[in-house]
Amino acid sequence: MDLGTTLRGAQDQTIMAWRQTYNRRRPHSSLGGQTPADFTSQWPTSVQATPSLQQATAICFTQPELS
């Protein structure tokens, strides 16, 4: 077994576990002390399916031509 492959797998598992804890189980002060999972479970399904408001949206603006 290659040490690099084993080490990379261990790193991936550690990062995945940290992300799960941070994003699902750790209380966040910005959410009133709730975990993200608890916070999102309070929203209706229609709101959860809405794309993030932070995503970039392309809005075309045209300036009137100067004569």
From TrEMBL:
InterPro entries: Integrase_cat-core, RNaseH-like_sf. It comes from the Bacteria. Pfam families: rve_3. One of its GO terms (biological process) is DNA integration. Residues 12-36 form the Integrase catalytic domain. This is Integrase catalytic domain-containing protein. It comes from Bremerella cremea.
